[in-house]
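Example for tutorial group B:
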């Protein structure tokens, strides 16, 4: 899709490209024109993709599947006009487009800016500003052109032309950093928000399952009020499941932002920025096990003081051996793959897991009415989580991990409240909850068991392929390095031979005898007499 300004902006790309480029256009279906009209003459191959068949579409393909269809660095030029605002996962779309662009290649993106009307066909989610594009693209390349669409007399759109400089590993870091960036959401105008189904494709299954479980527990006990999420991690995932709630976050890994944003505290629950503050509800998911045993009572006491109406604490427990067995199985899977234990589990073993009974007793002494809900089907976590963690270490395997997670999130989340449980949610309120409000999920059945077996098998096949590819790539890199070293050694030997020959000539009798003749010849060449 394109417009007159897009075509004019695309002309700015011409001085930066050659005449034999391999060009990819993402969102190429010709509705109001396409960049192909301008760029095809500069391409030895022009590939247009779109999610719908139509004119100028060579391949029906979702932008989120680009890296599965094309090798990294396959294209010299990647172009996408007026498509990005329609991608619910705009971060993933940008990553996919840059992943298939070669280092040194050119990226052209145009999209809409805040204030431009909703054009909800097929959907319209985001608006981007000049400052957004500077922040988004500067880490991965040289911004050659950055321009606003002033067609309507104001900045109604934006375009960027970028020369990519980032290698694939740097792109992975950049993709993680994109999760911390926010842009203008059209949901603010339409009253809609991200659906849990769409989020399912972006979050690893264990993170998705535990934060969605926490969000459903919160929704079951209240329909409003402020929430503090302690130990949220830098992603602050809970707000994605509860977009209409006022949520605050505290975690040492949260970027230390400058400004007046008081919703994110780059520190732990004892940070002074939380002193004298109150929240209706305080929650913490899988954080207690990372706190030393002699500090856990203080942790719970501090959270109790911050909460006005209730606390929700989720954590793996030592009351039985289930959680310890899961941790041990996951750690062993990682150890077999990488020769060492998984660092994130180190504190689970070093500090020992919290005791649910002790936590319940402490909260009761503090005056709370306490209920508990189990979550995280232990046999599934034992077998799948280790595979996923191992695979996440391989950058090229991450799309496969997210696809597997999406299947679990959409099809099996509801069954993850089935025993035996890996973690328990301890729910502390002013008044006890009716038993009916503590019923979550559905029991595991034959369908769920069969589906999980399929997902696990697909995970292992995909990861084996990724491990093999990574090993092949590593061996190829070693071979290339050794060949380069051999070439350097050969060149050095030839240079040494030449020096030896030159030294022998200079020290020879004939060199000394002919010196006067060479001196005269040199003067003649220089015009001296």
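The residue assignment follows.
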């Amino acid at each position: 899709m394109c417009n007159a300004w897009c075509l004019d902006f695309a002309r700015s790309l011409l001085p930066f490209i050659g005449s034999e480029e391999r060009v990819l256009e993402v969102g190429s279906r010709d509705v109001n024109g396409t960049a192909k009209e301008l760029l095809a003459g500069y391409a030895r191959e022009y590939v247009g993709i779109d999610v719908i068949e139509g004119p100028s579409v060579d391949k029906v393909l979702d932008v989120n599947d680009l890296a599965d269809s094309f090798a990294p660095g396959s294209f010299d030029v990647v172009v996408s006009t007026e498509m990005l605002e329609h991608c619910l996962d705009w971060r993933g779309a940008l990553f996919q487009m840059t992943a298939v662009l070669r280092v040194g290649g050119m990226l052209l993106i145009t999209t809409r800016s805040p204030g431009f009307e909703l054009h909800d066909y097929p959907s319209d989610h985001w608006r981007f500003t000049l400052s957004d594009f500077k922040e988004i693209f500067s880490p991965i390349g040289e911004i050659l052109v950055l321009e606003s669409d002033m067609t309507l007399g104001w900045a109604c759109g934006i375009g960027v032309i970028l020369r990519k400089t980032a290698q694939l590993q740097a792109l992975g870091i950049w993709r993680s950093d994109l999760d911390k960036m926010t842009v203008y959401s059209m949901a603010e105008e339409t009253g809609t928000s991200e659906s849990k189904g769409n989020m399912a494709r972006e979050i690893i299954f264990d993170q998705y399952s535990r934060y969605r479980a926490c969000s459903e527990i919160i929704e079951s006990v209240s329909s409003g009020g402020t929430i503090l999420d302690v130990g949220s991690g830098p992603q602050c995932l809970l707000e994605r499941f509860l977009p209409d709630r006022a949520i605050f976050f505290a975690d040492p890994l949260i970027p230390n932002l400058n400004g007046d944003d008081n919703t994110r505290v780059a520190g732990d629950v004892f940070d002074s920025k939380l002193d004298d503050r109150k929240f209706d509800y305080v929650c913490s998911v899988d954080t207690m096990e990372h706190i030393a045993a002699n500090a856990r009572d203080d942790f719970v006491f501090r959270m109790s003081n911050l909460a006005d109406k209730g606390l929700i604490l989720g954590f793996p427990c030592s009351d039985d051996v289930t959680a310890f067995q899961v941790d041990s199985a996951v750690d062993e899977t990682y150890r077999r793959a990488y020769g060492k234990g998984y660092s994130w589990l180190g504190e689970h073993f070093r500090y020992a897991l919290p005791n649910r009974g002790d936590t319940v007793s402490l909260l009761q002494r503090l005056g709370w009415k306490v209920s508990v809900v189990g979550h995280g089907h232990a046999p599934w976590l034992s077998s799948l989580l280790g595979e996923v963690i191992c695979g996440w270490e391989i950058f090229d395997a991450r799309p496969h991990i997210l696809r597997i997670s999406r299947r679990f999130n959409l099809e099996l989340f509801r069954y993850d409240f089935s025993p035996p449980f890996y973690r328990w949610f301890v729910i502390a309120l002013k008044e006890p909850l009716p038993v009916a409000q503590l019923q979550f999920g559905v029991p595991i059945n034959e369908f769920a068991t069969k589906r999980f077996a399929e997902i696990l098998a697909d995970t292992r096949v995909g990861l084996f392929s990724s491990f093999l590819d990574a090993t092949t790539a590593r061996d190829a890199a070693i071979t290339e390095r050794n060949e380069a070293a051999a070439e350097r050694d050969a060149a050095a030997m030839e240079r040494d031979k030449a020096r030896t020959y030159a030294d022998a000539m200079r020290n020879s009798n004939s060199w000394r005898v002919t010196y006067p003749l060479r001196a005269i010849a040199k003067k003649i060449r220089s015009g001296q007499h």
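Residues 68 and 296 are 45 Å apart (CA to CA). Compare this with the pattern of hydrophobic and polar residues in the output above.
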